[in-house]
Design goal:
It catalyses: fluoride(in) = fluoride(out). It comes from Pseudomonas frederiksbergensis. One of its GO terms (molecular function) is metal ion binding. By secondary structure, the protein is mostly helical. The protein has one domain. The protein is built from 5 helices and no strands. Helix 1 packs parallel to helix 3.
């Protein structure tokens, strides 16, 4: 169990740092589009989780430490639906309802599509 905890922790740090870097980069280059980093990491995270899930279904012998480290740790640290909620509220509060609802729709439906695409890639 300790190996799984360590794997999740180390991978979680990597995912979290990647998310932090993406947010800082977007804010430095496009501060008006502060929500773009959250949208990008959520869609990429959904693609990655679908891909990993499909790969692990095909390869059940992959150790739990690797599976949990990548899915729970890395992808869990990378994706940020709590930030997504805050970004959406910030857009609504600033009177940008059309952008907020577009962001909401792209995040949810794009995330589902990206997860499906990742899973489908494992079946090629």
């Amino acid at each position: 169990m300790i190996r799984t905890i360590l794997a999740v922790s180390v991978a979680g740090i990597a995912g979290t740092l990647l998310r932090f870097a993406a947010g800082n980069w977007v804010n430095a280059h496009w501060p008006r589009y502060f929500y773009a980093a959250t949208l990008a990491v959520n869609l990429v995270g959904c693609l990655i989780i679908g891909l990993l899930y499909g790969l692990f279904l095909m390869r059940p012998e992959v150790p739990i430490e690797i599976r949990a480290g990548l899915i729970v740790g890395f992808v869990g640290g990378l994706t940020t639906f709590s930030s997504f909620s805050l970004d959406t509220l910030r857009l609504l509060e600033s009177g940008q309802a059309p952008i907020a609802f577009g962001y909401l729709a792209i995040s949810v439906f794009g995330g589902l599509l990206a997860t499906w695409a990742g899973l489908s890639l494992t079946k090629l």
